[in-house]
Amino acid sequence: MSLLRTDRSWRAEVRGRVPVRYLPQATPAHLRGTWLEARPARIERAVADALARPTHGWLVVAASADVPRGRSVVRRVAGREVVLWRDADGGVLAGPGACPHLGARLHGCDVVDGAVLCRWHGMPLGRDTRPPWATFAAHDDGVLVWARVGVVEDGAEPTQHPVLAARPVADGAIASVVSLAATCEPRDIVANRLDPWHGAWLHPYAFSDLAVDDAASSDDRLVLEVAYRLGRTFAVPVRAEFTCPDSHTVVMTITDGEGVGSVVETHATPLTAPGEHPARTVMTEAVVATSDRAGFRVARRLAPLVRVGMRASQTQLWADDLEYAARRYALRRGLV
Ligand code: FES
Ligand SMILES: [Fe+2]
Questions:
Q1: Residue 209 C-alpha to ligand 2 middle, in angstroms?
Q2: Beta carbon of 104 within 6 Å of any ligand 1 atom
Q3: 135 and 187 inside one domain
Q4: Distance 135 CA to ligand 2 centre (A)
Q5: CATH number, position 272
Q6: Can you give the pTM of this predicted structure?
Q7: Most exposed: 102, 107, 182, 238, by fewest CB within 10 Å?
Q8: What angle do CA 31, 32, 35 make, to 5 degrees?
Q9: Which element (helix H / strand E) includes 316?
C-alpha cells in the first residue's frame, strides 16, 4: 500500500514538474470527428453574443513595437489612413494620415518634440493641432496600440480606453505579435476563433485531444481541454477558455496546465470602410506567454530568439485560419 502511494506521489511529482505527456498523434483514420459538436447554430449564437459587445470605437491598429520614437507610421484602418507616432513622453498619438496642407501621406516623417514634421513642407502636427486636422484618442497597452477610429455602436459611448482583457504582468511574460490580412470581415475572424472544434482537424501539427467542456461553457465562454503538439509523440495538455471582451476581439486564456494565465488575443481590424466589399481585414494576434517554471526564466532572457519561433508557429496557424475566415466570407457573400 505504502509502495503504491509512493509510486502515486512520485508520478504526481513528475507530472507537476514535466508538462509534456506521451500522447501519440492519431492518424486521420482514427481522429474523432467533431462535426456533430461544432453545431453551426451554436457557433452563430456565440458569434452573435460577441458582436453585441461594443468596441466603443476602439480598434487595434499596430503592435507597440511597430511605433518607434522619432518617426511616424501610417496604417489603413476602416477605410482611412491613420498616422501613429510617439509624444515627447513616449505615449502614443494618432491622427488622420494625410497632411492638412497638400495631402502628403504622413508616413516615415521625423517626429520632434511630439510633433510629426510633414515630409513635404515641414508642417508640424501634434496633440495641439486644431481641426480640421486633429488627433484621435489612442492607447498603448504595452503590447498593442489602439486608436478610437472605429464605429461607436448604437447605445454605446466613446470611452477613454479600449476594453482590455487581463494579461500576465509584462516583466514575467514573453509577448509575440503577428498581423496578417485576409479578404473577409472582422466577424469571420471572430467566428473562426469561436469554432474551437476545428483545432485538431485543421491544425493537426499544432493541436490534438481537443474536447469542449459543455458543462462549463456558455454562449459567452467556451471552455476546453486541448493538447499542444510537440511532434507526433508528445504533447502538452492544457485547459483554456475563450471569451470576447468586444466584438472584434477573442481572448484565449490558459486556466490550467502549463502556462496558466498566458493569453492569446485575436484582434480583427477592418482595413476597408464599413459596408465596402470585397472587405479586407487585418488579424492581429498577441500571444502573451508566462510560466513559473525555471526554464521560462531562461526563455525570457532569450526572448528575441523565442519570439522568432513563436511568430513562425502563429503565422502557420493563421495561414489556415484566415483561409477559413475568407471562405466563410465568400460563402456569406455568395462568391462561391
Ligand atoms: S503637404 Fe504637408 S506641409 Fe505641405
Ligand atoms: Fe484555428
A1: 14
A2: yes
A3: no
A4: 36
A5: 3.30.530.20
A6: 0.92
A7: 102
A8: 125
A9: helix 303-332
